[in-house]
Specification:
This protein has 16 helices and 21 strands. The protein has 492 residues and is of the alpha/beta class. It binds nicotinamide-adenine-dinucleotide (NAD).
Length: 492
Amino acid sequence: MIRLSNFVDGTHVAPENGKYFASLNPATEEVHVEVPRSEASDVSKAVAAAKAAFSGWSERRAEVRADFLDKIAAGIDARAEELARAESLDQGKPMSLAATLDIPRAAHNFRFFAGVLRHELSVAAPMDRSMFSYVRREPIGVAGLISPWNLPVYLLTWKIAPAIAYGNTCVVKPSEMTSHTAFILSEIIRDAGLPRGVVNFVFGLGGEAGQALVEHKDVPMISFTGGTVTGRKISETVAPQMKKLSLELGGKNPTIVFKDVNLKKHLKMIVRSAFLNQGEICLCGSRIYVERDIYESFTEAFVKEARELIVGDPLDKATFMGPLVSKEHLEKVQGFVAEAKAQGLRVLTGGGRPENLKNGFYFSPTVLAPEATGKSSEGMASEKAFHASKIQSDEVFGPVVTIAPFDSENEVVGLANSTKYGLSATLWTDSLSTAHGVAAKLHAGTVWVNTWMSRDLRMPFGGVKESGLGREGQLDSVHFFTEAKTVCIRHD
Ligand code: NAD
């Protein structure tokens, strides 16, 4: 068993109180690592180190900072297999997914922002012969970076890379459930020779270490990815302090399938968009709306495909879905399904634990459908109750989807926009005018058409409504982690 330590001022240190808690391997239910239960005093030391490192780091030339980012990316590549394995043991995601998605993207995040930094130009505007203005993008100070458990190291690097690229220093608080790869990243950062104090890691619980970081007076910006409830709490803390705040929160994403969809081509991706990483991706589509003409045939094909997904040992190459992250999360998902069943939803497949798996927090890919699909007045009434139900409104964040029919574009846009969330939406259609028309009407930060989770890091990413505040991406991250200063010069 591995005991993690905090990384403060370039050194790995134990938490001051000497306390640790166990983080389980969700596939075996055995202790995987021991995580420091850090407190406010540990956070204060990390913030002090980051503050002390700020002027030296922010004054380095951009090319020098970019070179450090490249070194960190190379360090991730060099330990990619170890990172993929740790991510899988910690979170339950298939190791094959971590090896092809999480870890390469983590390295890419550093390379991407190194490239952005090297090629950046600033804005200058001549006013007349004797006067011009230009914009300086200036680093702010110590960034507090807080991340969730579902894409642990990938989401962390998406914050650390732009923060330090632009001359800030940071204190990172990874999820208490998945701290292992962040710890490995701290070793990679140390070995890359980054000046001490530029990146600090403090492990611990959200209500303790996380809250202390958010409250700290010397942390002028917080970049947070996680649940909407936590995001709201953080907003309440930082708003009176006038801190900069970026929130990437939960989703309840609609998947809209029009009758002209090329199902032969797209079915596998539609299923993947529902169940990848056990449905524990904020972008997974959990409300599937299908044009009524193809509702029965689509549902049959979708269920057949879902039944064929391999659920099992995340270290096995053939596995598509591992266990859910924790017992508590499994119970939450089970609760959603039990309530939906009690309300009369049909379970078309799944609905419980796979019979062959005795240990671990496994849950089968589950497809639910409303009771009636006909157009009788009784059927329409029960559909209405279904659309207002909890399973259609709240984020499950597990391998559970519903499939419901729709009759018109206006109707499905109304249904898609009917939740408090607005992170992403996916459309499946062969009609370009449908794609453009519906994309324009959806309340979502990202709309994918005939694809899913394709990310161009140059594009803005984030949510509307209760899915977030602000955007991440090339320009957006640079704007978040810097302040613009306009300098106006008269030179006659
Ligand atoms: P969570 O909100 O419970 O925890 C996220 C992080 O916040 C953890 O590191 C936790 O320790 C910390 N935290 C908790 N309370 C805190 C407090 N009071 N102050 C400061 N930090 C605190 O979320 P989770 O369960 O880890 O992650 C799942 C959620 O994340 C889902 O809702 C999912 O949709 C969302 N998510 C969103 C995105 C996105 O890009 N929009 C990406 C991934 C996950």
